[in-house]
Write a structure and sequence with these properties.
2 helices, alpha+beta, 3-stranded antiparallel sheet
Length: 173
Amino acid sequence: MTEIPRAERAPYFACTACGLIGEPDSADYTLTADREHVDRTRPMTVGCGFCRTRTEITSIDVLDRDSEHTCSRCGTRIACPADADRVVCWGCGLNEPGPASVGARATYRQDVERGADQWAAARVRVAKQDARARGTLPGWASYPSADEGSEDLSPRPVRARKFRTDVSGGGDT
């Protein structure tokens, strides 16, 4: 089996939730019988790289790569829609604003991404608080962070460990 072409497994689409255009940050798809291509007769579940919404798209929702973007890091020219808000370089992997991400649209993109990041951080905070209340929060994650509203952020005491001092290698002497 050869690798599935990136243009097939990471199609540009307009998110149904935020309206921004880019490649998905995750995709679940069905392969054709020969396992060489994405089966476009079946819906593909994609995750928006901006707002983190998961949605199903079909071949009708896939946008044409009718323009090019040049990577600011390595100079690779990447085919993308002219309306792309974010482009991922196929050469070096840089994730940068696309050709349409200017002015008010760039500000909107930044707001959506910031909101998604804040929402994700809030979900982690709630999960930690729930686990702490159940008494199931692992020790390595048990110290509250400054954004969890903890009053006491002083360092916790470290338990002393006892180490074996006899390292002679065993045997009777």
